[in-house]
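Homework help board

Subject: predicted structure for assignment chain

Our instructor gave us this sequence and asked us to write out the predicted structure in token form, then describe one feature. I got the tokens but I'm not sure how to describe them. Can anyone check?
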Amino acid sequence: MTPPATQTGTAAPSIAGGSPRAGGAASAKADTASPSGTGGSRERSGQGLLHVYTSLTLSTVAARMLGITYPLLALFLTGSPVEVGWVGFALTLPTLLFYIPAGVLVDRVAPRPLMLVTEAGRALAAFSVALAVIFEVAGMPYILLTAFVEGTLWVVYSLAEMALIRSLAPQNDLTEMLAMSETGSHIAVMTARPVGGLLFGMIPGIPFLPFLANSLMFAVSFRSMAALTGKEGDRAWRLPGRSEMADTARAMFGSSSRGEIVDGIRELRRHPFLCMAMALTATTNLMVNALIVVFISGSSAFEPVTVGLVLAAGGIGGVLGSSLAPGLRRSPRLARVRSGKLMLFAQMWISVLALSVAAFGPHLAFVGVATLLTGCAGALSNVTIRAYEINEVGEGKLARVVSVHRLAVHGAVCLAAPLGGFLASVNGVTAAPMSLFSTMAVLALLFSLGWLLRYTWKKLTRHPEDA
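My token output:
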């Protein structure tokens, strides 16, 4: 439900979701400040990475847990599938609104202070929801507001963590770190969802425990990040001056930001593979995340921990897929557009298969198998997309291209929540998966037919000397 929780087939905007060079200007600055030049710096780097990974792990688990507990709370308060969809929409809307402005902010402001501010804000937001539930004053307007705040702070944190890791890690370790982080992210999905469901149903009638637990995890994440030490001259620790903050605000919301978006779109158009990846992953994300909302909307008959366990299958699939990521990432064949297209089409048709399984009925096993399949396919396609971005997009434009690409994909995730709630309300929980499967199958056929016709036309019109 949250962006990191249900994302498939594209790089999530976390440390696992960015390419090592996706920091643009921030990456260039970080390289000059990398503390890997001396033995003492390397020791500090290792200690720093331990603090960062502690913060990252706790923050990721908490975010995944909120991805299931916010919708469950909406269902508990209202019993309406539509309200479940709107809560999911509030969690994911910030990725649509603030992704590019947050990227500009992270490029210009030290990442560590940003991460401290976001973790403090997320801890307070989760704690306030726990209090509202305890004193029985939690209403949908406040739930929607705090979900929106959580989503906004997550966007900033997820981008800042990538910049911070790059400033701490030696260049030759980045690939393995990203692969390990992606695996850890999927492990968090496996653990956080069932734990969140368990805590939600532990005290019947007063489901405040998961929000209290999230508040504590965000607080410990803040403490771990605060323990990170470094030189004041390093970019990761340097606070911006007043003039720098003014320049940043103008860049985030002024004409220069719009210019960066346009430039990123132009660069995207130069890469047909990335355009195809954006279309295919946005489509699969829309359908798969809508299926999850439909499932949660009809989960009132199940124990919350059972709901979490079913959705944790997506994390198992992600671990299976990401475990293959390092080998696939090192394969030179992944740099070829044709093999990349095959991987994207495989992900698309696996999603069709997953939705067909879910369409058999609301049985828990069917939904679990569906999320398992989509999690595995999504993790594998992440490798393909990132490999192409690293190898084919110019260094100076990589961040803008990645931002525009992910903005489109996360927009689909944002729309999936109200779509799933609407389908569950109109068609019913049993019939809604069949609607999603039918739509996905038709779109997959159209995508495949269009690619086949284009490939055939190129073969027929190819000159003999080009063969």
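Reply (TA_rk): Your tokens look well-formed. For the description, you could write something like this. The two ends are 48 Å apart (CA to CA). That's the kind of observation they're looking for.
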